[in-house]
Amino acid sequence: MNSMKKLIAVGAFALLVLTPAALAQIPEASVLPVDEPLMVGKTLLQPGTYTIQLVPGFSNRNIVQVRSQDGQTIHATVLTVPHQLSPGEELPNTMFVFYPAVAGEPRALRTWFAADAVSNGGHDIVYEESRAVLLARAANTRVVTYADNVAEADFGTADLRVVTPEQTYETYTVTEPRIAQTQIAEARPRELPATAGKTPLIALLGLVAVAGAVV
User: Fold this and answer.
1) Can you give the pTM of this predicted structure?
2) Residue 167: phi, psi to the nearest 5?
């Protein structure tokens, strides 16, 4: 009888320890519909349907990939920083927030709020300095930026600054408030992503089956 209790305890412990680890492998992901040319980082996306997915890796910044709808082709690899909600700021009723249009330039993605976000707030897209200056002036807000010559491989260590509408520069800090009003795009339903793999679910079902067999 004691051996049976020990086996049950071991099974329950395995469920508690392994289940969060399995679920943690599911990244934030959303469907990204594009109905006109759209800048995301350094990449100009043409009209179509894409998936946007978080690639965790840094404490104060993250990499986001824009992929084909089937997830097989990477169209863009983008640096983002956390969009920390300011006091009184509410989560918008949309997953995607855009910068105002700049004359002669395509629209640019500003912030992505994943429907299944495990982080607070959303992900602000970081743009190279030459484009960030235009966006800051058009939106009358401060924009996080990096030097024009920074390569994707250096996103994790690139020096980040904040450019103001007056084209002055400030030091970027993770806790800086976002005080400017955001131009909200048309509301889109915060749908659950269809791009996550089934491996964590299969692992979870397997653990449940093992625990059931032990019982």
Assistant:
1) 0.67
2) 65, 35
CA-based angle 159:162:168, to the nearest 5?
Answer: 115
Q: From the centroid of its chain, how far is CA 42?
A: 16
User: Which amino acid type is present at position 193?
Assistant: P
Q: What gap in Å lies between CA 128 and CA 79, rounded to an integer?
A: 10
Half-sphere exposure for 73 (CA within 13 Å, toward CB): 6
Residues 33 and 123: their CA atoms lie apart, in Å, by 17
Q: What is the pLDDT of residues 23-81, one digit of tens each?
A: 344 568 899 999 999 999 999 999 999 999 998 766 678 899 999 999 999 999 999 99
At CA 24, angle to CA 21 and CA 27, rounded to 5?
Answer: 155
Closest CA to 139 of 176, 192, 102, 179: 102
Give residue-wise pLDDT tens across range 87-144: 777 777 788 999 998 888 899 999 999 876 555 568 999 999 999 999 999 999 999 9
What six digits make up the tokens of 84? 């920390």
Query: Rounded distance, CA 167 to CA 131, Å?
Result: 12
Task: List C-alpha distances in Å: 68 to 73, 142, 163.
Answer: 5, 31, 32
